[in-house]
Specification:
Number of helices: 9
CATH topology of the largest domain: Methane Monooxygenase Hydroxylase, Chain G, domain 1
Protein name: Protein msta
Structural class: mainly alpha
Number of strands: 4
Order of helices and strands: HHEEEEHHHHHHH
CATH architecture of the largest domain: Up-down Bundle
Shape: elongated
Strand content: under 5%
CATH class of the largest domain: Mainly Alpha
Radius of gyration: 20 Å
Bound molecules: zinc ion
Largest sheet: 4 strands, antiparallel
Number of domains: 2
């Protein structure tokens, strides 16, 4: 979010960032600071001047134009940030409750929601009681959707060979692949659909391998690149 990020910049370097993203109230179309209008339901509230944190925020729905002061916005974001920060890093349910609670408050790409989803997509598939093979189809879909939400944002903010993109694409391949095989085995999808889904899996693995193999050997990311390569070999033999 612009406010938080620029507050940090300001603390450290005593200047206001003037980059294209900070000057753009939609933050390059990601809406990562936007909140949903409590008055008209459907309008988005954006800063009237992202370079001035005291400036008011305004509903973009012209018929509504509901105003929130900069001070109230800072207070809201700060309070919710503390709440998010207090959730234990392994607490799947805690993050889910958090997202549900603020589903109608923040834009789905708000950085506080993205932060919770980022924790969650890593927990689904890895933590106790949530190992990837134990996940239900619904839980796999949830992990898939969180990965896709974050990938959409990262594609706008850090396109190209960013490490985060590589990690998310690797994380995304697993739920897509497992759903595809399970649905095929149970006869819920046909051969064509299976092939289409596997083509996406291959694309995700190839790109994540390409990105992550540039990381230092022995790092988690490099290990993911190796795992991506192994998975590609296995799929190639099917
Ligand atoms: Zn900036
Ligand atoms: Zn409104």
């Amino acid at each position: 979010g612009t406010l938080k990020r620029r507050e940090h910049l300001q603390e450290g370097k005593f200047f206001w960032c003037q980059c294209k993203r900070c000057c753009d109230p939609t933050e390059l179309g990601t809406y990562s600071s936007a909140i949903q209008c409590p008055k008209c339901r459907g309008g988005l509230i954006l800063s009237t001047d992202p370079l001035d944190q005291n400036s008011p925020w305004k509903c973009q729905n012209g018929n509504c134009a509901y105003i929130v002061t900069g001070k109230s916005m800072l207070l809201l974001v700060d309070t919710v940030f503390k709440e998010l920060d207090s959730i234990h890093c392994n607490d799947v349910n805690g993050f889910e409750v958090f997202l549900e609670k603020y589903r109608n408050v923040f834009h789905k790409n708000h950085y506080l929601c993205i932060c919770a989803k980022h924790s969650l997509f890593q927990l689904y598939g890895r933590s106790e009681n949530f190992m990837i093979q134990e996940l239900t189809i619904d839980q796999l879909r949830v992990k898939e959707n969180y990965c896709r939400d974050i990938l959409d944002v990262v594609n706008l903010l850090e396109p190209g060979l960013s490490k985060l993109r590589g990690v998310i694409m690797y994380e995304l391949h697993a739920p897509v692949m497992i759903q595809a095989t399970r649905l095929y085995e149970s006869g819920e999808i046909k051969n064509n659909d299976l092939k289409k889904r596997l083509r996406e899996v291959i694309k995700l693995l190839r790109e994540s391998e390409e990105i992550l193999k540039m990381e230092p050997e022995g790092s988690n990311e490099y290990t993911m690149a190796v795992a991506a390569g192994d998975a590609l070999n296995r799929i190639g033999k099917v």
